[in-house]
Amino acid sequence: xxxxxxxxxxxxxxxxxxxDSYPTLDELCASLSxxxxxxxxxxKAINYEYDKKQNRFL
Length: 58
Hints:
Elements: H1 7-20, H2 25-32, H3 36-44, E1 50-51, E2 56-57
Antiparallel strand pairs: 1-2
C-alpha cells in the first residue's frame, strides 16, 4: 500500500500507524521502507513535529 502524498492525509495515516502498530518512528520507517528525514520534512512543512514521548506528530 502506498502512503498518502497529501501532507494532511499523510499526517493522519502516520499518526494512526504509530498509535496502532509501531512503538517508535524508527520502527515505522523501517517497516514501511520510508526515509525518516523525508517524512519529518514533509510534516514539518505543515508545522508538525515528531514527539518521541507521545510517539506522534504534533
